[in-house]
């Protein structure tokens, strides 16, 4: 076999892939022009986007910001946006009828809110958790005003109660339920008889108070955030309790009540509940009771989303295998210990997307308060459009309001995706 | 009492809370007492309040004359009708919005959900923008915004007037889009038109049998009939023959301008359009996500196994992927329908007279029967939602994966 003329001893270096298959060109070919139909769709979408941009950018870029009314805008140039409505009314959209000289209070509350949720969102800052605990009281005082001590006394009373529980439990009484009952009793006594006088006394000693602002003055995004954030914070623990109640096997009565509550709330629209809050609640309370409308709305929104939260968490609980329950029981953990240490962390992890979706839904639902004539951004938009100066404006106003909601809701959903990724253990 | 107490321990009062044998019972007794106490407290307050206001609880107002007009109605109603009739008109309006909204939302949502999985990058991205954009903005804002757009961007009826009108009607002078609503041609059933309906029903029955026969044939011999073309013929040909034989019994009444407004035709009010459209696109974003995750939930092995069996891509989709995906998709989709129905109570924002507008709005204000009206209203929504959740449960039971 010597007629072989040539044998290659060395491997040829692989030739580079064709330029149409890799890099930017390859990506474009694969993702945008992989066939005639896809090419057509791509070109159509590009055309659509181009038309949209060609309409939108000249309109928005040349927009007027400093005219007095819509008419003035139209006289200057009818084909561009009239953002003057935002210049003129942004204070209302943000603060409602809150007194102008007190705008710093909601603003400060908002920035403190960001500070107070950082320890909860990012575990690295958990040592600042004490601030998240005192924030609700601080926000309450900043927003509504009044004497600082009338809010602080609540914190004082609660700390005294907790302190007395530990004192009693460690020093005097062995049985912890007894200590709890006694501590509760002492706290109630404190709030019934001592707190008022003490608040007055402290107020005389260190006069620290802000002008009182009544609830009907609240509005705009301040109101949305107050209702939304309070509802989110309050509905979470209630939702957990409802879910546990619905799951419980040896307490059929508790289960029945929980199921009834959840199904009732989920079966009716939030609007009817808000109407109950504004019209019907007076029927159910002792004659002559009349409490704050914002508080009523918050209670209803909280109950509403707590029912949804309960269903989401129940789904998560169902995802925790029975082996986990058995394992924690065989370790000798009590019911609450095993829920706190074993079951809940896993169940909540599974249900993060659902929980965040409920939060987002709640935040969006705060706009419904405009229907019982509170001044949230959507309600304010109607008011502004009814004003003779801005009659006939729509895009500018609705885009601005929609964008604000979008930022909050989209941010929440992005955070939930980040959290899901971080907690993913994949086993 | 101590017969099952093996340790011989004496019963103490504290054991009611600390001993697991008694704790469940004692907790339930406590709950029961609290529940009953709160319930009686509420009822007692209500009775006292009603007595203070000099009211009683009675549903007789339903039989009284309503005395207000409803501009959008599906059944005959005048202001001489009863409050019960007004409530019924409202209920039908709610159901109308819910039905139309659900259909549009499903069609758009399925479309968007599938397109979001498209291999075409730009389409997939556009659909993500659509979904995120509609999901993250309150539905109430969409409703009032679309209502504002419909009233501000469309021409007034008088713009259609004159020799050289500023606006013109669409689709061969048959559809008028104005700021007072959209006018469509209305079909008028003439004499003999009901035979056409009967013919259509018969054709449908024949088609059902045909499809069954073709399926049976296919399982036996491996070859079916060209069902689509035969069905199309069965559906269209008898209908057309009969239509001309009966002398064109169905005619259309076209909207026309009279004075400053349009007459005749079907008048779709802007409130209805805005509400339906806003609810539909808002819900379609959620349905899109549901469809997408349903399709993604089917493991890739299924597709690969199917193609290993020699199925072609569209058969894989229709025979392997979709039947499995539907099991994941349908229950959350139905609960989206429920959400849409409940959200339709936002009709008040645009003045559409749904059941909350009639029974829970004007009737409530006119008669001052807040308690009774709200009870009826909640009862309506509750029964709709219980109905829908029983549908979901039925679906889950009948389509569960058997075995494992």
Tell me about this structure.
- The complex is a heterodimer of chains A (427) and B (404).
- Chain A is built from 17 helices and 2 strands.
- Chain A has helices at 23-31, 36-61, 70-76, 84-95, 104-121, 129-144, 148-172, 176-205, 220-247, 252-267, 270-284, 293-318, 322-330, 335-350, 352-365, 377-386, 395-423, and strands at residues 146-147, 209-210.
- Chain A has a two-stranded antiparallel sheet.
- The relative contact order of chain A is 0.08.
- The model of chain A has no long low-confidence stretch (mean pLDDT 86).
- Chain B has 13 helices and 7 strands.
- A 3-stranded antiparallel beta sheet of chain B has the order 1-2-7. Chain B has a two-stranded antiparallel sheet with strand order 3-4. A two-stranded antiparallel sheet of chain B has the order 5-6.
- Chains A and B meet through helix 2, helix 10, helix 11, helix 15 and helix 16 of A and helix 2, helix 4, helix 5, helix 12 and helix 13 of B.
Protein structure class of chain B = mainly alpha
Radius of gyration of chain A (CA) equals: 30 Å
Number of strands of chain A: 2
Largest interface pair: A-B, 60 and 55 residues
Shape of chain B: globular
Q: Work out the count of structural domains of chain B.
A: 2
Number of helices of chain A: 17
Order of helices and strands of chain A: HHHHHHEHHEHHHHHHHHH
Report the helical percentage of chain B: 55-70%
Strand content of chain A: under 5%
CATH topology of the largest domain in chain B: MetI-like fold
**Principal-axis shape of chain A:** globular
Strand arrangement across the biggest beta sheet of chain B: 1-2-7
